[in-house]
Design a protein that fits this description.
2 domains, homodimer, three-stranded mixed β-sheet, 9 strands, 12 helices, 307 residues, Rossmann fold, alpha/beta, 6-phosphogluconate dehydrogenase C-terminal fold
Chain lengths: 307, 307
């Protein structure tokens, strides 16, 4: 027996993640009505065709009207403005949340504009794909994934209940939920997600600009490792632009450490210090084993095979 | 009807790739007898147990005796010494080749020690996995993969025939074969394989050394991109140490370009130049599409899902 946790869900920004939230919430039977706004008229038309929302509104304020849960799923830097715009139309007692990869900036934006009678709880489901747009979403997106919520420093019982309800919501969508301070979230994600994306984008750009090696050769022989980076580097450009700008301090901090370590590796190669290389390469193997042990990945020998 | 291309195959160094060559050659029915040497007594015992070779020799010279094709599948830096050691025992007319990821150093080593009556043809099947050792190999390893051969600048017909035969061998194992100059090979692989591995090793090392983020957190939230790097960074430490040392010049050249580009990205983030970020991120998307169009990869939305 599932219980309707939120009689009305509103999703502002309905691309890959926004549309997956709706599909998953419907599949789990935890929402009643669903209203949607997307800034793109083409996307709105497409969402109407896809038919997973009860109402597709041309105005975000209309979408949030009477909603019990409002989820902002726009690119990170657009969340603040969208929240400010709809704030006057929010129902007292509504929970507002989001799905962005940076939480400090959202926490600030929510703190500034959310009415006192609402419960602002920034959130981040760690899930996605290289695809984007409302067609790309799917109901199983959050199954077995972590979702991090970064609640405000409020101690009132009503807020605690709202956090509990939003936790139940994400669990109903198949996720495990973790509560975390937003600053710490942004540091953790800077290393586990933002830096990997930055590096992947960068190496693909470097490879594309070579004169001695053609793009055709890069593509043809990409199975040796490069291909894995191209997948990550095909993620949504606007979303990732916003992530790096919104999490600037943590990203630059991690990037600084990465570059420092890379210089040391470069020096070890130049001077033929094989021991140093081997020591690092042995150490990194352990991390992989821990990930497999923790069940975050299977131990398939799939490198170099088509997936 | 398959034809025996080489009545006797000898494999020197029998780990992941060496044992896969044997399994695949046997499955394809293109070799008669198979003799093996591995520097590790434990590996030799294990290969005897696995039973895929007719003879497991305690001495590499015994293994290459009467062999028509000798394939060196040791870590790259060990190839030169192994080739020098067995050279006096090579049968006139034998083809010697290898499977290493760096070709310049092997070409030099072969040119120095191979008897004039032998055909030295360095080779590199672009295939592998994060696993290592003779247990990890499998017969389908080379199916649908590229194998690059870097023949010497010889124009005699006997050599051309030997190259043709080795081409047939790899095609029988399921590969597409490309001939290339060894210097160019090393440049192409520096960007499509060596640099990606170096960067993956580096970021996993950086993440492991953080004080503010625990290793448990890195593992727990690795699905956001980091996990893909850990797989690559779990590759064989000794083999990769050798690759970077043997292909030093090309790797440092590519690393220099990568670092330069990364500094520019870092600066764009610091100064909030969103346009520059978005331009790069859009450009890198095209490369991914080319890889999918070229059939080097399928377009599955598998980021963040368990594979």
């Amino acid at each position: 027996m599932t219980e309707i946790l939120y009689p009305k869900l509103a999703v502002i920004g309905c691309g890959l993640i926004g549309s997956s939230v709706i599909r998953a919430a419907r599949a789990a039977g935890v929402v009643g009505q669903v209203a949607v706004f997307d800034a793109s008229p083409q996307a709105r038309d497409r969402i109407r065709e896809l038919g997973f929302a009860d109402a597709v509104c041309d105005d975000p304020s209309a979408a949030v009207q009477d909603a019990d849960l409002v989820i902002f799923a726009t690119p990170p830097l657009a969340i603040g403005e969208a929240a400010a715009q709809v704030a006057p139309s929010l129902k007292p007692g509504a929970t507002i949340s989001d799905v962005g990869s940076v939480k400090g900036a959202v926490a600030e934006a929510f703190a500034k504009v959310a009415p006192a009678a609402c419960f602002a709880i920034p959130g981040h489901p760690i899930a996605g794909s290289e695809q984007s747009g409302p067609d790309a979403g799917f109901a199983e997106m959050f199954q077995g994934r972590w979702c991090i919520l970064t609640p405000q420093a409020r101690t009132d019982e009503a807020y605690a209940k709202a956090v509990e309800r939003l936790t139940d919501f994400w669990m109903a969508l198949g996720s495990q939920v973790e509560l975390m301070d937003e600053k710490h979230h942004d540091l953790v994600l800077a290393v586990t997600s933002h830096l990997p994306h930055l590096i992947a984008y960068n190496i693909v750009g470097t490879a594309a600009d070579l004169e001695e090696v053609t793009r055709g050769e890069v593509i043809k022989y990409s199975a040796g490792g490069f291909r894995d980076f191209t997948r990550i580097a095909a993620s949504d450009p606007i979303m990732w632009r916003d992530v790096f700008l919104a999490n600037k301090d943590a990203v630059l901090e991690m990037l600084g450490r990465f570059t420092e370590d890379l210089q040391a590796l470069s020096r070890a190669i130049r001077w033929g210090e094989g021991d140093k290389l081997q020591e690092l390469f042995t150490r990194t193997r352990d991390i992989r084993r821990s990930i497999i042990t923790a069940g975050q990945e299977t131990a398939e020998p799939n490198f170099g095979r088509k997936r």
